[in-house]
Amino acid sequence: MMESYCGLDVHKDSVFMCILKGNGEKVEEKFGTLTPDLERLRDTLVDHGVGQEKHLPL
Description:
Oligomer: single chain
Distance between the termini: 25 Å
Strand content: 25-35%
Structural class: alpha+beta
Low-confidence stretches: none
Shape: globular
Order of helices and strands: EEEH
Mean pLDDT: 88
Number of strands: 3
């Protein structure tokens, strides 16, 4: 089974998140940039099994 992967699009006032889960499910959500928003983003990533950071070559 494939791991869960996440892409983040970071802007001045918002962060867009897209998670692709191993079962093909896609989870998309927009967050603010204040500390409580970023903590909720972190919790969402953990809840969906997104783990260790991996960088893809550009």
